[in-house]
Specification:
This protein is mainly alpha-helical. The chain has two domains: 128 residues, no CATH class; 218 residues, MetI-like (MetI-like fold, Orthogonal Bundle), CATH 1.10.3720. It is built from 17 helices and three strands. Strands 2-1-3 form a three-stranded antiparallel β-sheet, with helices on one face. α9 packs parallel to α12. The chain is extended.
């Protein structure tokens, strides 16, 4: 034993570190410098992202600002001398009635000057007068004042969107039109009120008359159909997979496919809707029902994933306590676990619906870019949505649609922010912390 003790290695002496040495000071300085650089890079990345967001929003809002007002002219229309049949107003010569009213604004013009004078007003002015008389037949036999939009080139002239000093061949408005417009302004007949038509008018080939009413209604129908289909189906599938489905290779395969479907490009779902809903089932094109069904397919994987994650966040003691007092499994789920998980589920659902509002590619494939000039119909009538309306306007050659495209983007962003605000409110209002 003594021989063994003699050959045992000596215990290692503790390493003494001189924390005040120059080497340790250099290491501390290096670590602190790395922390400062990481903080700097993080702040730089956030500043960079916020800067680009500010540039994007300011550019869109600045471009859209000119579409928030519309140049209007006050016209007096004498319906006392017009031969109007109250029972057949559609057949009246509204073109002649409107032009007689235009002539009275600046009388004494020759035929050439009259053509330039008439071009100051929207081409659909005769139909606006007709619709106003049809809505209020009491106007027949009287002299009434109607405020109607001016043409898009004159609207741009009034808003200063091009330079009057440009040569005449480089602008859409000639010198005589500018002179006639100035006379109307001097007479106090021109105004620029807020453009309510942007929200309440239907689409039109003329920028001064085009509005988003059809796109807003179509978007509402699509989101409504999507919610009705995807919300109960997604929650039901998530509850089954999380609480009832056996854990085997088949359920593992289903879970993998659900996760993969959440990352599939939306255009693929558009092709699926075109082939199945329109090709096999024979549903009509361009209708909100088909659009909502396609968007529901896109949202289903997201809702299933969110619901399963929300159910996992509920403490297992809630389930065990419910089962311990005699509740069945479905009672424990629907009476205790699901109500506690519902705030998170609703938040995820609303965010997924907000993303669905911005989908364009699948809706274009099923034809939801219809040119709708009449009031919106039902689920099986041709319609469009805000994203497809933006796509149509962005592709239009008229310059007036540039500002209206930006204004439509602003409206879409406002809708998205409202839905995200609702999701944040629901989470903060009903969320339980464990």
């Amino acid at each position: 034993m003594s021989d063994i003790a003699l050959h045992q290695p000596a215990a290692a002496e503790p390493v003494r570190v001189d924390w005040k040495s120059g080497a340790m000071a250099a290491r501390r300085k290096s670590r602190y410098g790395a922390d400062r650089r990481l903080r700097f890079f993080g702040m730089g990345a956030i500043t960079f992202a916020l800067g680009f967001l500010a540039i994007f929003l300011s550019t869109i809002v600045y471009t859209a600002s000119s579409a928030l007002t519309q140049t209007m002219v006050r016209v007096e229309i004498d319906l006392s001398t017009a031969n109007l049949d109250p029972n057949n107003l559609m057949e009246a010569d509204w073109r002649a009635i409107s032009r007689d009213a235009y002539r009275k604004l600046i009388p004494g013009l020759d035929r050439s000057a009259e053509r330039d004078h008439f071009s100051l007003f929207t081409n659909n002015g005769q139909f606006l007068i007709r619709d106003a008389v049809i809505r209020s037949p009491a106007m027949i036999g009287q002299t009434v004042t109607v405020v109607m939009p001016m043409s898009d080139p004159i609207d741009q002239l009034a808003k200063g969107l091009f330079d009057r000093a440009l040569p005449e061949d480089q602008r859409r408005v000639n010198d005589r039109q500018i002179e006639l417009y100035d006379k109307l302004v001097a007479g106090g007949l021109v105004s620029q009120p807020f453009n309510w038509g942007l929200l309440f008018n239907n689409d039109s080939r003329f920028p001064e008359l085009a509005g988003l009413a059809g796109g807003l209604v179509g978007t509402f129908y699509v989101v409504f159909v999507c919610f009705i289909l995807s919300f109960p189906l997604g929650i039901g599938a998530a509850i089954y997979l999380e609480e009832f489905a056996p854990k085997n290779r088949w359920t593992d395969m289903i879970e993998i496919n659900i996760n993969n479907l959440a990352a599939v490009p939306s255009v693929v779902f558009g092709l699926l809707g075109l082939a199945v809903f329109i090709g096999w089932f024979g549903l009509p094109r361009s209708v909100p029902l088909v659009g909502g069904m396609v968007i529901a397919l896109i949202n289903l994987p997201t809702i299933i994933i969110v619901t399963r994650a929300a159910l996992k966040q509920v403490p297992s003691s809630i389930r065990e306590a419910a089962l311990g007092v005699g509740a069945s499994k479905h009672e424990a789920i629907f009476h205790h676990m699901l109500p506690l998980a519902m705030p998170t589920i609703l938040t995820g659902t609303i965010i997924s619906l907000a993303q669905a509002i911005g989908e364009t590619a699948p809706l274009l494939l099923i034809g939801m870019n219809a040119f709708i000039t009449s009031d919106a119909g039902g689920m099986l009538d041709a319609a469009t949505t805000l994203p497809t309306q933006i796509y149509i306007w962005a592709d239009s050659p008229e310059r007036g649609f540039v500002a209206r495209t930006s204004a439509a983007i602003v409206v879409l962003l406002v809708c998205l922010m409202l839905m995200n605000a609702i999701a944040i409110f629901l989470r903060q209002r009903f969320e339980r912390r464990w």
